[in-house]
Structure to design on (107 residues):
């Protein structure tokens, strides 16, 4: 009976993990957009940020799209702190980490 309960709890946890977004956009981050590299050719580079989230919880891998979305949200939040209004992914997602360039494109 305990094995069945543990398995059921693990399945429920996995289901909840896929539905949860733990990273929220800050008020400052709301004004930062995610763009492609060609969209920032005339922009001022402000720096770069390396962001990370958990890509596995309790040994269960999270959905790659959820991880990528949360990384972009973190990059937007951090980009705002550097005075940027645009972030561009510079690396692929690897082990829940990604590097973004931060740019100021607007006035």
């Amino acid at each position: 009976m305990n094995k069945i309960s543990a398995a059921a709890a693990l399945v429920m946890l996995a289901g909840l993990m896929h539905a949860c977004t733990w990273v929220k956009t800050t008020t400052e981050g709301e004004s930062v957009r995610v763009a492609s590299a060609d969209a920032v050719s005339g922009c001022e580079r402000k720096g770069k940020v390396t962001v990370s989230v958990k890509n596995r919880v309790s040994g269960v891998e999270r959905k790659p799209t959820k991880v990528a979305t949360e990384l972009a949200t973190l990059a937007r939040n951090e980009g705002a702190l550097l005075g940027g209004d645009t972030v561009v992914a510079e690396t692929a997602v690897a082990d829940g980490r990604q590097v973004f360039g931060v740019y100021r494109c607007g006035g």
